[in-house]
Amino acid sequence: MRFVIVTGMSGAGKSSVLKMLEDTGYFCVDNLPIQLIHKFTQLTFDKQSHIEKVALGVDVRSGEGFDELETVLTELSDYGYEFEILFLEASTEVLVTRYKETRRSHPLCGTERVDKGIELEREKLSFLKKRANYIIDTSKLLIRELKAEIDKIFVSGEQYNNLFITILSFGFKYGIPTDSDLVFDVRFLPNPYYIPELKPLTGNDTPVSDYVMKAEAADRFLDKLEDMLSFLIPNYITEGKNQLVVSIGCTGGKHRSVTLANAITKRLSQLPYSVKVEHRDIEKDAKRKS
Question: Is 13 annotated as a binding residue?
């Protein structure tokens, strides 16, 4: 029997996750009154129910009864019921944007602005986040990327660490990404920009990546970066960090940074972490010229 409580910030993707789990065979119930959770758990764990996988959606829409949730979860543990908590997180800026796009009001904002409701919700959910087995920050995730994470945890049963890593290439002339946690400058490497046949290509093209990686310094940089990240990542996880943005920059964000971002992503993908690569400025040079 696998019992999963899906919770987190309103607008972070809880409804989407419940649909994903339902598609994989989970019996899903959303927004059950807090007072009924104990009885519901008892019924689903009953051998006569023949239910093997359950996902229960819980959030602040439960109103005043939500304050009882911590006590209910403690009671479930005391009675020997095993459950997992999946907490969906997102930045306040992203959540505000999502609410504006859907033109829905936040359940806690009342007559206040949406961001006030979000911060209040964050406070009310803090105890759940501390108890969570899995924390997924959906701020930068596409639906297919979120589904891949859900499948990894609840379908494939792969080891999961509460840290999603984004390797981001960028061009210094367009500014350092504001959400960067770590920034690395690879402008010390030979620049394909000055090779006529390589200039119109990008680091995603083999001739450019071969040219950049031909430099001995490129491999040494990757070795040192991989070693440092292998040390830092477990410590970030221990401290509760759930999203890490590693930015790698060159002048225009088209050749060297793209090549190195792809290369370190390939190396990190061998480790038990969720890693994706993004190239922020790869097309900007072409757009400016046009």
Answer: yes
Measured in whole angstroms, the distance separating CA 100 from the mean position of its chain's CA atoms is 21
Does CATH number 3.40.50.700 belong to domain 2-154?
A: no
Is the pTM above the cut of 0.70? no
Q: Annotation-wise, does 59 bind a ligand?
A: yes
8 is in an annotated binding site: yes
Q: Is 61 among the annotated ligand-binding positions? A: yes
Confidence of residue 286 (pLDDT cuts 50, 70, 90): low
| Residue 60 counted as an annotated binding residue | yes
Q: pLDDT band for position 228 (50/70/90)?
A: very high
What value does the mean pLDDT take over residues 214-222? 95
Q: Is 12 annotated as a binding residue?
A: yes
